[in-house]
Amino acid sequence: MLNQIKILVQVVESGSFSKAGQVLNMAPSSVSRSIDNLEHTLQSTLFRRSTRSVSLTEEGEYFYQQSTKILSDANKLIAEMKGDRAEPQGVLRISVFESFGNLVLAPILPRFLAQYPKVTVEIDLDNNLVDLHSENIDVAIRIGTPQDSNLKARRLMPNLTSLVATPEYLASHTAIEQPEDIQSHNCLLISHGRKRHYFYCSNGEETRRVPVSGNLVSKGGSPLLSAALSNSGVLLLSTWMVQPYLQSQQLIEILPDWVTSSSEHGSGEIFAIYKGMEYPKPHIRAWLDFLVAELSNMRPPQ
């Protein structure tokens, strides 16, 4: 019955038999048959079925809530029995936004794989948010904590931002001495799905909101960074992304006495998001611990 309970929980989290089947690597008919058998054993109807969706009955909702506790206890018991003997192994599926995946994860992945040779990593560079319940993803790396209370998050690092441009661009355009001066410059902008873009500049208790515009908008930072390095404009981007170019002086920090971000509430922090299991599988736990240790060594430029 424990396997049937796992299938039921996945159906609820995925929202359909077919999506649950994709995650579990089962045919939808097999998922449906398992639920039918479970309902027959319990003598209860757990789901309301229609051609478009499935939803829990009142009895199904109660059984689902108790089932998550059963699975948590079972995983806890298995972890206790195995202790530290369980060697990380299996397929680790990671979703990460494109720039962070290329610039931060790609260089450290070989060290993780060398440390855990029985783990295979599948990495998906995707700037769109993924649903960990319906997609076959173990860990997603995103800016900000999840809204879904069924997901857990581990903080990796602050997402500090830097306002930069090349020395050549700054030499050929009007000086930027105050936040308002940015308005007269071409700004290379991250897309937020909003019609109007602002930079928020703070210096102690003083905060200024500066409307900005530019001729290049992108969901990912890589095209903007390339444009900035080609003297195309002013760029506000994560410090971990521009740090090598600040150190080589290909880019110069603008308004260094001000903290600038594209959000009124700051640039946020970067988290590893995973399903809310109390005891993650060994290879997931190993990856989370490895990330925290590696990224804690990253420092902003001096």
TrEMBL record:
GO terms, molecular function = DNA binding; DNA-binding transcription factor activity
Q: Does the keyword DNA-binding apply?
A: yes
Highest rank taxon of the organism: Bacteria
InterPro entries annotated for this entry? LysR-type_TF_proteobact-type, LysR_HTH_N, LysR_subst-bd, WH-like_DNA-bd_sf, WH_DNA-bd_sf
Q: Which Pfam families match?
A: HTH_1 (PF00126), LysR_substrate (PF03466)
Q: Which UniProt keywords apply?
A: DNA-binding, Transcription, Transcription regulation
Domain HTH lysR-type: residue ranges: 1-57
Signal sequence range: none
Q: Does the keyword DNA-binding apply?
A: yes
> What does the sequence similarity comment in the record state about its family?
Belongs to the LysR transcriptional regulatory family.
Name of the featured protein? LysR family transcriptional regulator
| Biological source species | Vibrio marinisediminis
